[in-house]
């Protein structure tokens, strides 16, 4: 886990210095050597300007990352703007499975983060301690603003890539995710998302300690769509749910890139139905979502995706975000056998270190088979040893 403290620029500079080698390596892997510094600056400029309009502190943070790592601001902006790389046909976007449940005063959401192998390099937990905004813990890549996470108010965000439609040169989605995590509730985050111009099709699941659980799909040049805000449980894979978004989605491309999406979405919904049907006294949503994310039904099409020629992406990390307890679990590696598990507990007044559960793949397969029949106190961090 990397902990960054201070102003936006200070946190960015700490990030840059601490992960300098990994950031420079990622620049080398992600950005074409055919583009010189001037070309990189030109490509990054519209994404940078749109991020300045969205939240200039995020630009300051990226400037700090660049200064600390010895890279350029344009390069850091492009690391956070895979939509720009997608326009240049340089990016292979990952898939994901998102789940959420809210019953009996217990609200938890989670996600498997599925990517191609090179995108998994260096992914870690980044915990931002900000004197001017809510503290936030996110799953992030070196030089990145973050993929999914939770803030100190218990507002949590997970998301899924969708395929098709145009790409708009707006603030990139990583900047948008961090901006949404500066809000204090799901309702304020949804309102903020409604006012933002989005670069591409994407699904968000947002939840908070009040029991709010919202599924939101966004698209460029049109208003976002809340596809559900009344459900006690929801599941989303890499295909659109809202009719307005399905009309724009390229379903043929989606099925080609993410052939497992239909099964993952259906299977996750069925497992969530089983979870919510359990008596309150025997139901632990945090454990239940963790079990869903490591499910292997119909492997290799399963929710926990293993490397397989049928699909380029596999599960490189998973998150389970308990809004009720304001506890964010991050598991790095396959959901069934993470090599590292770390927890940020925003509801604990002092820092602590504790062990965490680890699972073997064999136990995971057994469990999966049985599955199928707003305060602001300083958080504690649980950082167990590698498993």
Describe it:
The chain has 387 residues and is an alpha+beta fold. The chain contains 13 helices and 15 strands. It has helices at 8-18, 20-30, 37-54, 56-69, 73-79, 82-87, 173-180, 186-194, 243-246, 251-257, 261-276, 285-293, 361-372, and strands at 2-5, 96-103, 106-115, 124-129, 136-140, 148-151, 156-161, 202-207, 213-218, 225-228, 233-236, 314-322, 327-332, 340-345, 380-382. It has an eight-stranded mixed beta sheet, with helices on one face. Strands 11-2-3-12-13-14-15 form a seven-stranded antiparallel beta sheet, with helices on one face. A hairpin with a 6-residue loop joins strand 4 (124-129) and strand 5 (136-140). Helix 3 runs antiparallel to helix 4 and helix 4 (56-69) packs across helix 5 (73-79). The two termini are 15 Å apart.
Topology (elements, then pairings):
Elements lengths: L1 E4 L2 H11 L1 H11 L6 H18 L1 H14 L3 H7 L2 H6 L8 E8 L2 E10 L8 E6 L6 E5 L7 E4 L4 E6 L11 H8 L5 H9 L7 E6 L5 E6 L6 E4 L4 E4 L6 H4 L4 H7 L3 H16 L8 H9 L20 E9 L4 E6 L7 E6 L15 H12 L7 E3 L5
Parallel strand pairs: 1-4
Antiparallel strand pairs: 2-3, 2-11, 3-12, 4-5, 5-6, 6-7, 7-8, 8-9, 9-10, 12-13, 13-14, 14-15
Helix pairs in contact: 1-4, 3-4, 3-5, 4-5, 11-12
């Amino acid at each position: 886990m990397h902990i960054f403290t201070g102003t936006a620029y200070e946190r960015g500079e700490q990030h840059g210095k601490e992960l300098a080698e990994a950031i420079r390596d990622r620049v080398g892997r992600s950005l074409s050597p055919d583009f010189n510094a001037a070309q990189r600056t030109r490509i990054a400029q519209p994404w940078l300007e749109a991020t300045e309009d969205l939240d200039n502190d995020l630009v300051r943070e990226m400037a700090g990352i660049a200064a600390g790592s010895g890279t350029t601001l344009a390069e850091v902006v492009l690391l956070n703007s895979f939509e720009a790389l997608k326009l240049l046909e340089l990016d292979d976007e990952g898939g994901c499975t998102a789940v959420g449940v809210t019953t009996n005063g217990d609200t938890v959401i989670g996600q498997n983060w599925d990517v191609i192998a090179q995108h998994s390099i260096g992914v870690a937990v980044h915990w931002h301690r900000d004197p001017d905004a809510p503290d936030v813990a996110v799953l992030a890549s070196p030089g990145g603003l973050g993929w999914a996470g939770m803030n100190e108010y218990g507002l949590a965000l997970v998301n899924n890539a969708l395929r098709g439609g145009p790409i708009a040169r707006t603030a990139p989605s990583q900047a948008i995710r961090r901006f949404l995590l500066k809000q204090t509730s799901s309702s304020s985050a949804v309102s903020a998302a409604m006012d933002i111009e989005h670069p591409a099709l994407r699904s968000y699941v947002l939840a908070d300690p009040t029991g709010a659980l919202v599924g939101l799909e966004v698209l460029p040049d049109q208003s976002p769509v809340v596809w559900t805000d009344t459900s006690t449980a929801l599941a989303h894979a890499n295909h659109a749910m809202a009719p307005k978004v399905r009309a724009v989605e390229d379903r043929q491309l989606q099925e080609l890139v993410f052939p497992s999406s239909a099964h993952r979405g259906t299977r996750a919904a069925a497992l969530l139905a089983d979870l919510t049907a359990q008596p309150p006294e025997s139901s632990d949503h945090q454990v239940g979502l963790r079990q869903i994310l490591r499910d292997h039904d119909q492997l290799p099409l399963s929710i926990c995706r293993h490397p397989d020629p049928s699909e380029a992406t596999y599960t490189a990390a998973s998150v389970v975000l308990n809004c009720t307890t304001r506890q964010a679990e991050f598991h790095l590696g396959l959901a069934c056998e993470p090599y590292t598990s770390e927890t940020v507990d925003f509801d604990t007044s002092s820092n602590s270190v504790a062990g965490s559960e680890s699972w073997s793949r064999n136990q995971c397969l057994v469990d999966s088979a049985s599955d199928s029949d707003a305060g602001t106190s300083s958080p504690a961090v649980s950082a167990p040893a590698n498993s």
